[in-house]
Amino acid sequence: MDTDVSDFWNILKADVLKADKAENISNKDNGIIIDLEMALHSIFPRVQIYAFGSRVMGVGVEHSDLDLYLSIGSGLYSEKPSKDDFQNQVKVVEAIKRNSSKWAFIRKTSGRLPLVIVRHKALNIRCDISFSTKMTYDQNQLVKYIFSLQPIARYMVIYLRGLSHRYQIRKFRAHIHILMVIYFLQVHHKLPSIFDLQFGLSPNIFPWITNYKNLGLSHFDMTPIPLNEGEARSIMKSFFNYYCGFNFELLVVCPWLGRQVQRDELNSLLPNRFQGYRLINTARHPMILQDLVHLNQNKAYSIEITDLEYFKQICGQQEKNI
Q: What are the E-state strand segments in the chain?
């Protein structure tokens, strides 16, 4: 048994504390958002700043970037960038450069997602400022809510993130771990499906639904898993066993429905509001991992068969040793 497995609980608790610290730094009261509001106030007096990403979800590390979404003017947002996004990008760069005592400008990007990339000098944290990603913020809030329902889910993601780093499972990043953990807990009746959390709600960014009902686990006849070493080892052992034997060729990871779904039925199960939108190519990729909100998006599109086989190999080793 390697050191990481034998000292599983102490390592996990230490990593959770690091994630907590990274999350606390992203809170509005800890300087970054206040400093950015002050820098932008003269040009965007009504700006609203939303933090999202791994730090905000409580699964980040010390060197994680902080993602910031700027809601400017009306507060309306869309999935695609507009001309205003690029104009606002220029204004933000100018404001950052005028406030060089607190901010260091790194670069700006164009294309599908215009960004202003800066560094907060006092905290030495890189910040990616965007103008058209409010959907991602909403999705992160849904994940945080799910973590509050079943706190061990966050512990599992943090452990998996450390595991991927140690074993260089490069393409299995935090957003992949989050979806896999949620789905695993759903099929084991420890979390409700996203469908159940959104039942009866209408799309707020057509055709997507980004909000959810605030329902406790007791509403679904479920209870929280205790946060202790025995339960954590048991649930991780079960997780590794489940995905080591998961038939990725036939099945998809579907946290929207939270149950077994075959590849060839996934698109037919989507609501009618997705008619006319590009759907998931279920025959193209070795792994299909449906997004929580973008139901017509495969979050595992970059994972090759060699990546998947290596991940399953590590799962098999961990299942035996943990």
A: 48-52, 66-71, 103-109, 115-120, 125-130, 251-252, 261-262
Backbone angles phi, psi at 249, to 5 degrees: -70, -30
Q: In the numeric block, which tokens belong to residue 37?
A: 């509001």
Look at residue 270 and tell me whether its pLDDT is greater than 60. yes
Helix (H) or strand (E) holding 57: helix 54-57
pLDDT at 73 > cutoff 80:
no
Is the per-residue pLDDT at 31 higher than 90? Answer: no
pLDDT at residue number 76: 47
Distance CA 27, CA 66 (A): 10
CB atoms within 10 A of CB 280: 22
pLDDT at 83: 77
| Omega of the bond leading into 207 within 30 degrees of 0 (cis) | yes
> Is-contact 89 108, C-beta < 8 A?
yes
3-state DSSP: the chain helix, strand, coil percent, rounded to 5?
45, 10, 40
Query: Is 132's pLDDT higher than 90?
Result: no
DSSP 203: P
